[in-house]
């Protein structure tokens, strides 16, 4: 039986968006969801990366912002969790082999500017995509829903602007 044009278009679209396959994205999403769920169910902890960053800075910075009680009191478990994320990425790299590791053609300068903008935006919105998008939406938080919608809208517009400026190469 011949494939429909919709089916061929769908396969082409999947290959365009996921040239290396989609299985590892699905596995990553399931692992993140399971990890966040276990942290909440077993320990009552809400996992958000921007707070991990701020609480880790409380070890080295004496600025009043980083010395707030919520950051100082939770910094040990947050630091342990963040180290676990880094070790998990290292384990994935080791198990899959360096030749299979994903890479980017984005320049280090763009990555730095992007990281600074994301950090600023996460502080401005009182949380990051992991905090709002995973934990906030799971707890049916309306402010998290608004934040996620804004994150997505800005990301889509930014990607389109950069694609236009760079002639299609992001």
Structure description:
With 170 residues, the protein is an all-alpha fold. 72% of the residues lie in helices and 0% in strands. The chain contains seven helices and no strands. It is globular and about 55 Å long.
Write a short abstract of this structure:
The chain is 72% helix and 0% strand.
Could you list the spans in which at least 5 consecutive residues all have pLDDT below 50? none
What class, by secondary structure content? mainly alpha
**What percent of residues are in strands?**
under 5%
Q: What is the number of E strands?
A: 0
Major β-sheet annotation: none
Overall geometry? globular
Helix content: over 70%
Indicate the mean pLDDT: 82
Distance between the termini: 39 Å
Number of helices: 7
Order of helices and strands: HHHHHHH
Radius of gyration over C-alpha positions, nearest whole angstrom: 19 Å
